[in-house]
Structures are given as C-alpha cells and as structure tokens.
Amino acid sequence: MTGPERESVLEGCCACGHVRYRMAAEPMFVHCCHCRWCQRETGSAFVLNALVERDRVILLEGSTEVVDTPSASGKGQKIIRCPRCRVALWSHYAGAGEAVSFVRVGTLDDPDRLPPDIHIYTSSKQPWVVVPEGAVQVSGYYSLDEHWPAASLERLRAATATM
Known about the structure:
By secondary structure, the chain is an alpha+beta fold. Helices cover 13% and strands 30% of the residues. It has a single domain, classed as glutathione-dependent formaldehyde- activating enzyme (gfa), CATH 3.90.1590.10. It has helices at residues 36-42, 144-147, 150-160, and strands at 10-13, 20-23, 29-33, 47-53, 57-61, 65-69, 77-81, 88-93, 100-104, 118-120. The strands form two sheets. Strands 6-7-8-9-4-3-10 form a seven-stranded mixed β-sheet. A three-stranded antiparallel β-sheet has the order 1-2-5, with no helix packed on it. Strand 6 (65-69) and strand 7 form a beta hairpin.
C-alpha cells in the first residue's frame, strides 16, 4: 500500500451523475502530472491519476464513451468520458495499453483519500504551484522500479502479462 492508509473500495461519478463507477482495489500508484500536455488536456495546472488494473474499475451506473485523444508520446490515449457531461473519468495510455486505468482522482466521491505518491514533470509545472515539502518529485517521468512499491510492480506485471 502506498501513501497513507487506504481503503480498498472507492466510488466516483461524473459531474451530471449519469456515470457511477467503483474502483474495487487500492491504486497501484498515484501520480500528479504537471506536464504541459496534461495542463492543456485538463484545462488545469496538473492531473491527478490513480493507476489501477482495468478490471478493478467497475461501471455501476450509466454508460461511457471512449474518446481517442492525441498524446505527447504520439501514441495517443483513450479517455473514458461520460457521454452526457463529457467529464473525463479515466484513461488508457498506449504504454500500459488497456490493462491499466488511470482514474481521475477528482471524480472520486472522496478524492482526499488519494494524495499523490509522486509529482512528475515538475520541470513544466506552473510556477505558482507549490509541491509540498518532502513530497517525491521528478523533473520528467519516473522510473517504476525506483518509485513503485514491489507489490504494485507485481500487480502491474500481472495486469500487462496478457497484452
């Protein structure tokens, strides 16, 4: 388990309430990305993603739509959105394929429960964003082997083994 004590089930929804979902496992890792691409995509200073196996994100109500979106890597990403209010709920990036969902922490009912384990791409963070003292941060992307807990790496390997 990373970060502060976390319960294993979290639920969330879109802005209009059409989509409700459950994250049926604690995240493998939570990162706060400050890259320019995430800033543009979210219209904010950063995005906070909780990475969890795709089969642990369970649709409880409503339906979703998949929007193919360009990414800085050039490989694109699939953003899962509410078809009514268009809120981004989670994504699948090319690197992990559809095996891992990057859940938007802000869509959870209690987002306070998932602070970031790491701040990434801090070289392009907005100058007025202050990363808390003692928080783990890197100027670009991070090394999974260096930053992820061993149990999370095992979960990631299992999730991507069938890709």
